[in-house]
Amino acid sequence: ARESYPLSYAQLRMYLLSQIDAGGTGYNMPRVIPLGAGLDIQKAQQVFQDLIRRHESLRTSFHTIENTPVQAVHDAGTIDFQVEMADLSQTTGAETVHKAIKETVRAFTRPFDLSMAPLLRAGIITLPDRTHLLMVDMHHIISDQSSVQLLTREFTALYRGVQLPPNRIQYKDYAVWQQAP
Fold it and tell me: Contacts by 151-158 with C-beta closer than 8 Å and gap 24+?
């Protein structure tokens, strides 16, 4: 393992654009996923921890060293990740609940500091009917539509107790290959 790795061309573009739009949310990829009742919140928290262990991109930060943008992959044990909780179970009235959901999601979607892993955030809203909404936000520099679909499939599998095989390749490996002379 190295201290830092090169960025892929896509990451480099995103990093440079993010420096121009520092403090913005234009490169956030927020999602709200309706979940039924009976969600095991502790299990969901553990599944996110498992995903962070499985995928180096979820524990990657970005820095500039000697005028060169690089990515650093952090050890899973050093990542502080907690699912944010929002309890709207006591909120009454459909319009009030809808407004509270919108405000909660708006507050959840905030800028990422690219130098601080993880560039992933998750939250659970408990609704009056005891169903839940899962909020997930990632910075585009570590994710795209394909990776979001993969993480969704893996979240579901891990939550159901399925053992997933280890990943043979990580995104940083692609970046190293792409930048090789």
Answer: 151/51, 151/55, 152/33, 154/51, 154/54, 155/47, 155/48, 155/51, 158/47, 158/50, 158/51
